[in-house]
Specification:
Blueprint (H helix, E strand, L loop, with lengths): L16 H7 L8 E4 L4 E6 L5 H10 L10 E4 L2 E7 L2 E6 L3 H12 L5 E4 L7 E4 L3 H6 L16 E6 L2 E9 L3 E6 L4 H11 L10
Antiparallel strand pairs: 1-7, 2-5, 2-6, 3-4, 4-5, 7-10, 8-9, 9-10
Helix pairs in contact: 2-3
InterPro entries: SoxG, SoxG_het, TrmE/GcvT-like
Protein name: Sarcosine oxidase subunit gamma family protein
């Protein structure tokens, strides 16, 4: 009898998993770092004023964000603005199936639908000190008056290009670096968390 198939994929930061766990800090100055690998991500290109864009939005069940920093969401999908005619779809759906649906929605119109799930990984940074960690290497103003839940922008963190998304106000951030730069970013974040590992009050 054939052996059941197993997922043999290795995430870009699997080798740093233990170091990320060890770097976690609890308490009022706490911060944690975790990789969320193998998430479905699809890059879209289309004229935002076209019927194709309307069809893509209908397929996703959410309008395509129309300004830098804006996100929209519906069900399993979250959409991020990358440029005037470019978006990233983060989804809990199967990548191949979603890509096929979106290519059908695009039809013969100018544009593209590309599964980029293997090109990026996801790092989740959370806790009371998460913003202070990011501020060590991010040029953005991350104060709540300028950057809050639901905002997502292309930027750099530790000199690595990422899409930075603030998920909620705890705060929790998700960073989407290219897989080839994930090791550098992971190590930079671990080092940036070090100052918060002072004596913890039990």
């Amino acid at each position: 009898m054939a052996e059941p198939m197993t997922d043999a994929r290795v995430s870009p930061l699997a080798h740093l998993a233990e170091r990320m766990r060890a770097a976690a800090v609890t308490g009022p100055r706490g911060v944690t770092l975790t990789e969320l690998p193998f998430r479905t991500m699809v890059n879209l290109r289309a004229d935002p004023a076209s019927e194709a864009a309307e069809r893509l939005a209908k397929t996703l069940g959410a309008r395509l964000p129309d300004h830098c920093g804006h996100t929209t969401a519906s069900g399993r999908h979250t959409l991020f603005w990358l440029g005037p005619d470019e978006w990233l779809v983060l989804s809990r759906a199967d990548g191949a199936a979603l890509t096929a649906e979106l290519r059908e929605a695009l039809g013969p119109d100018p544009g593209s639908v590309v599964d980029v799930s293997a090109h990026r990984t996801t790092l989740e940074l959370g806790g009371p000190a998460a913003r202070q960690v990011l501020e060590k290497g991010c040029p953005l103003d991350l104060h709540p008056r300028a950057f809050g839940p639901g905002r997502a922008v292309p930027t750099t963190v530790g000199q690595v290009a990422v899409l930075l998304w603030q998920v909620d106000d705890r705060p929790v951030y998700r960073l989407f670096p290219r897989s080839s730069f994930a090791d550098h970013l992971g190590r930079w974040l671990i080092d940036a968390m070090a100052e918060f590992r002072g004596p913890q009050v039990s």
